[in-house]
Amino acid sequence: MSGDEQARSRATQGRQLTIVIALGSVILVVEAAGGVLSGSLALLSDAGHMLTDVLALVLSLMAVRFASLPTTTRKTYGYHRLEILTALVNGTLLIVISAGLLYKAARRFFDPVPIESRLMTGIALVGLVANLAALGILSHEHRSLNIRGARMHIKGDALSSVGVLLAGILILVTGWYRVDPIVGALIAVVIVVGAVRLVREAVDILLEAAPVGFGLDEVGTAIGTVPGVLEVHDLHIWTITTGLLALSGHVRIDDVRHAEADEMLNRIKRTVRDRFGIVHTTLQIESRTYEELGDVH
C-alpha cells in the first residue's frame, strides 16, 4: 500500500471511529440514566460494558491519529506509547467499576428491588439498535486490524444488550427481579476479564516484554538459517505500540566483502519481516573475530 493509500485509509478509519465513538457515548449516557431511573443493575452494567467499548474505540482512534504524527529528536518513537498509558489507566478504572457492580449485584440478589421493566426493556432495545448501526458504519474497512478489533467490541456489546433485553422481558412477564442482578453480575465479569487482559498487555508492553507468540529462540533460529550467519546473540523483541514490533540483536557473520555483508543484512531483514511481521529492526553485524569492548583484555 502506497503512502497516499495509507493516508486515505487512516482518514477513513478515523472518520468511522469518530462517528461510532459519538454514537456509543450517547448510548452510554442513555443506558446509565435509564439504569438509575429504572433501578436496573443489568442496564447499569451494560452501560459499563459500553464504557469499555467506547474506551477501546478511543484507543483505536488514538492509534490511527498517533501513527501519522512525526517523531522528534527527543521522542524518537513518536507518541505511540500514549495509547498504552491510556489503556493502562482505562483498564484499572474498569476493574474498580466492575468490582463495585459485583458488590451491588450480590446485595441486590439477596435483597431484590422493584425494576421498571418497560423502561429497562425499551432502553436495552435502543442500545441494541445503536450497536447494530455501529456495526454497519464499521463494515467497510475489513482489512484494518483496528476496525476489525472495534467490530469485535461492538458485537460483544450487542450481545450484552440482548441479555439485558431478555432479562427485562422476563421481569415484565414473571416479576422475577433477581434476574436483573444476575445479568448485571455476568456483564461485570465480562468487563473484568477484558480489563485484566488490557492491563496485562499494557504492562507487558511498558516492560518491553517479548510479544505473545514470539519465541526468541524461534526468531534466532530463523535468522541463523540465512546463509553466512554464524551466530545470533543479544536478541531483543518488544512492542512499541499495538501492532508495531521492534527487534534488535547482534549477528556474527562469515568473513565476506562489504557488499556481500549488505546483501546478507537485507536477507536477514526480509526473513524477520516475512516470517514474523517485524519491520523495525536494528542489527549489529560482527565479523568472525569481533570481540565485544568489555571482553577485550
Strand content of the residues, in percent? Answer: 5-15%
Quaternary status: single chain
How would you write the strand order of the largest sheet? 1-2-3
Q: What is the rounded distance between the termini? A: 51 Å
Q: Describe the global form.
A: elongated
The helix/strand order is: HHHHHHHEEHE
Structural class of the helix and strand makeup? Answer: mainly alpha
Uncertain runs with pLDDT below 50, 5 residues or more?
none
Q: How confident is the prediction overall: mean pLDDT?
A: 84
Q: Kindly provide the radius of gyration, computed on alpha-carbon positions and rounded to a whole number of angstroms.
A: 25 Å
Q: How many H/I helices? A: 8
The helicity comes to 55-70%
Strands, total number: 3
| Major sheet details | 3 strands, mixed
Brief summary:
By secondary structure, the chain is mainly alpha-helical. It is built from eight helices and three strands.
Summarize the helices and strands and which ones pair or pack.
Blueprint: H1 3-38, H2 41-67, H3 81-110, H4 117-137, H5 145-174, H6 179-206, H7 216-224, E1 229-241, E2 244-253, H8 258-276, E3 280-286
Parallel strand pairs: 2-3
Antiparallel strand pairs: 1-2
Helix pairs in contact: 1-2, 1-4, 2-3, 2-5, 2-6, 3-6, 4-5, 5-6
Overview of this structure, please?
It contains eight helices and three strands. It has 297 residues and is mainly alpha-helical.
